[in-house]
């Protein structure tokens, strides 16, 4: 059984996918927050510049390949205050001192300033996960993204730059005019690990693999940089799908507590953290040992510890930030993240058995969410794209719940509208879909 995971490690055929979603609207406009993708720019050439992150000066613009910042300015913190953006509405590569990928190469983030913007969206990249020799070496079917590190031109890759309507300025979306930060993923730990570990080949053939599960430390370096760069932010929207979705939830407190923002919003797309008492328990036990997530959870405020049940993180955040608006979205027939959750932990797993476990874990999660007015979920049934994995990628086409007359764009519109109460949606079983 093979999977094209997370459109990163095993790439989707982007041209064909984008063609499906091209010209789906009447004029490329929006209705109730719905983003419609127009004819897509498929060029791979860069159009931006690079930053000098802490110098307070700008670099000359270029239309050649993007370059990294100089060594003396690669830092996650600064006491000099925000820099003058080297360019607006272009992606800038920003290396972060001390931040590394799984192979110990330099880690970097990508920043896109919009002149006059006071709102900030932080998007965490998807891309699988790994926790043993087979998955971290790329030997297993289910693995993780960017095993060779982050390229400087990642945001000029056609798939990445068109990944989400929320990160594009060429479509009429709710975040089109926000400042944007893209948090790449190269540590195999859903942006959450804090462990350098050596994995041994169980077959005794390949050499030992030293792997840096450094996701949380990378997030902290990025957060320190953003805290310096974006003081006085109005709205902070943390989002991501798959590994990025799980990372957005697990790291939300750290983003929220460090970045100076008046209001906070979360959308965990297709990276749910289910209660450990359900079928996800063995996965939670495994990543606890491989990624040392206990050291990350120990940094949560007193009274909000994570002990035996990872799922309580959802309600802890609701209590820590009662004025923030928090959400999880995913397809009920997701056949991607669900495989990571169960396939390597239970014998003789079939597609229907995986979906059965996923539905039962979903019941546990919705029971956590329902009592909290500042938490909501959006759970459509099925979409053919990407094995029903990641609701917010490429376009919101086919994300509608027809019986309620809403799609994901409507849900996001409500999420970001403080004057509207949050509403949760779970589509009924659609027997004619996913046959």
Automatic annotation (TrEMBL):
<feature type="compositionally biased region" description="Low complexity">
    <location>
        <begin position="38"/>
        <end position="81"/>
    </location>
</feature>
<protein>
    <submittedName>
        <fullName>Pectin acetylesterase-family hydrolase</fullName>
    </submittedName>
</protein>
<dbReference type="GO" id="GO:0016787">
    <property type="term" value="F:hydrolase activity"/>
</dbReference>
<keyword id="KW-0378">Hydrolase</keyword>
<dbReference type="InterPro" id="IPR004963">
    <property type="entry name" value="PAE/NOTUM"/>
</dbReference>
<feature type="region of interest" description="Disordered">
    <location>
        <begin position="35"/>
        <end position="87"/>
    </location>
</feature>
<dbReference type="Pfam" id="PF03283">
    <property type="entry name" value="PAE"/>
</dbReference>
């Amino acid at each position: 059984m093979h999977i094209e995971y997370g459109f990163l490690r095993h790439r989707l055929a982007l041209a064909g996918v984008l063609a499906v979603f091209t010209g789906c609207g009447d004029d490329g406009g929006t209705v109730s927050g719905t983003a419609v993708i127009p004819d897509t720019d498929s060029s791979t050439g860069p159009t931006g510049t690079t930053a000098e992150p802490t110098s307070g000066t700008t670099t000359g613009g270029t239309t050649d390949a993007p370059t990294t910042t100089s060594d003396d300015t690669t830092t996650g913190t600064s006491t000099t205050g925000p820099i003058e953006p080297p360019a607006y509405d272009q992606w800038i590569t920003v290396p972060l001192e001390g931040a590394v990928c799984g192979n110990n190469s330099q880690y970097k983030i990508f920043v896109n300033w919009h002149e006059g913007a006071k709102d900030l969206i932080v998007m965490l990249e998807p891309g699988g996960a790994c926790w043993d020799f087979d998955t971290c070496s790329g030997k297993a079917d289910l693995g993780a993204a960017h095993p060779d590190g982050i390229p400087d031109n990642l945001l000029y890759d056609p798939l990445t730059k068109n990944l989400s309507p929320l990160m594009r300025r060429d479509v009429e979306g709710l975040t089109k005019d926000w400042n944007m930060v893209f948090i790449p993923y190269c540590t195999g730990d859903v942006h959450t690990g804090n462990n350098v570990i050596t994995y041994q080949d169980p077959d005794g053939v390949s050499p030992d693999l030293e792997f840096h599960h450094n996701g949380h430390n990378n997030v902290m370096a990025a957060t320190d940089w953003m805290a310096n760069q974006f003081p006085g932010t109005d709205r902070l929207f943390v989002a991501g799908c798959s590994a990025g979705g799980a990372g957005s939830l697990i790291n939300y407190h750290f983003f929220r507590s460090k970045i100076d923002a008046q209001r906070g919003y979360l959308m965990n797309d297709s990276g749910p953290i289910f209660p450990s008492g359900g079928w996800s328990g063995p996965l939670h036990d495994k990543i606890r040992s491989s990624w040392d997530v206990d050291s990350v959870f120990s940094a949560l405020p007193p009274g909000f510890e994570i002990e035996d049940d990872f799922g309580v993180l959802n309600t802890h955040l609701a209590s820590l930030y009662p004025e923030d608006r928090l959400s999880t979205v995913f397809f009920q027939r997701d056949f991607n993240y669900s495989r990571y959750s169960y396939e390597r932990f239970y014998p003789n797993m079939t597609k229907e058995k995986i979906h059965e476990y996923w539905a039962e874990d979903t019941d546990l999660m919705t029971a956590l969410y329902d009592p909290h007015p500042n938490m909501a979920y959006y759970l459509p049934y099925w979409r053919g794209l990407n094995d029903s994995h990641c609701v917010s990628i490429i376009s919101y086409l086919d994300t509608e719940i027809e019986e309620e007359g809403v799609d994901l764009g409507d849900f996001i519109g409500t999420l970001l509208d403080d004057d509207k109460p949050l509403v949760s949606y779970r589509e009924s079983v659609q027997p004619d879909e996913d046959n």
